[in-house]
Amino acid sequence: MSLKINCLIAQSGGPTTAINSSLAGVIHQALQSTNVDKIYGSLNGIQGVLKDDLIDLTETFHIDSNNLSTLINTPSMFLGSCRYKLSDPLVDDSDYRTIFQLFSNYNIKYFFYIGGNDSMDTVNKLSSFALKHNIDVRVIGIPKTIDNDLTCIDHTPGFGSAAKYIASSILEISHDAYIYDTKSVSIVEIMGRNAGWLTAASALARTGYSDAPHLIYLPEHPFSTASFVNDVREQLQKRNHVIIAVSEGIKDPAGKYISANSTGTDQFGHVMLSGTGKYLENLIKNTINCKVRSIELNVLQRCASHISSRTDLDEAYELGKKAFNLADQGETAKMATLTRTSNIPYTVTYGSTNVSNVANVEKCVPREWITVSGNDVTKELVDYIYPLIQGEVPLTYHNGIPAYLSVDHLFR
């Protein structure tokens, strides 16, 4: 490209502590590039593109090398998010014509979309449409999701920080329970519809003095309520306090969600779950005579930047830089990836894969990393997650709370 071009970045799906670090990585590389004139951000994902709701990240919002560090440490999405599914262009291509007309109007030649499985579906569709119609726009996906369920990548940015939060919370919940000299059961419900990576991370809470959580249940293994009650009874014979980590998406042997309440499906057809912990709490109340409570971490595990993983933020940043370099080298229809090259010492390399390999594909916890009984995880799984939670991030505080980059541009 002989003339300077503009690039556009958008974010989509659920928030994480690391997604803005990837945004910062793209901006960093774009600022260094001699090919790029303007760096735009789309507010609320692909919907912002459809509505022509773009912001100039450098001139209007003054995102530069001086405040990139603040952006890196700011949780959730600086550009806002959406959950929007593009139609099959063979059925309805109106969205595509609107999107690429906007790209033409703004001289957008690089488009970066940061998100999970469904966002990679958008990248796949847009890049395929551009290639089919000979449109010179390079479309690159940047991975993120706390669920860690993307394929073709060792792990996803956002997962390490969420895992660190979950392990720390389980340890603190255990300390809360241990002070009483009475029998008790604490059930901690953790996000994970079909993939149990987050719940598995609870095993990292185990220390030399505390072996909580004492039971771990993932959606990859069929869940039996009768076996669950027996597991709890056996644990109560060994100790006064039983701490349990359970995925929201556990299913019975027939594949039906244990969740007490299903609140329908989202735009991509995913079941929206609620109430698994409360259901199990009532089950134990009705079968075992002891104190029992359920704790739903819910959105708290997504954006806890005060306890984020340095490793997680650093890798997210590098993936953002890698994504820009892919576009700048003429690539399109790719997702930036990382591959673990060593566990001790922990090292990774950065690369790419065809986004079609990732879109709408879900990576679950390998069954061999779940115990035969289905109520715990193996050492291999712990060893896999452990490096991802390493390192702390020093935050700047104002009046006693973290000082993040303002997102008042999202207030409508």
Would you give an account of this structure?
The model has no long low-confidence stretch (mean pLDDT 92). A hairpin with a 2-residue loop joins β12 and β13. With 412 residues, this protein is an alpha/beta fold. The protein is elongated. It is built from 11 helices and 15 strands. The protein has 2 domains: 219 residues, Rossmann fold (3-Layer(aba) Sandwich); 143 residues, 3-Layer(aba) Sandwich (Rossmann fold). Belongs to the phosphofructokinase type A (PFKA) family. PPi-dependent PFK group II subfamily. Clade 'B2' sub-subfamily. It is found in: Cytoplasm. Pfam families: PFK. It catalyses: beta-D-fructose 6-phosphate + diphosphate = beta-D-fructose 1,6-bisphosphate + phosphate + H(+).
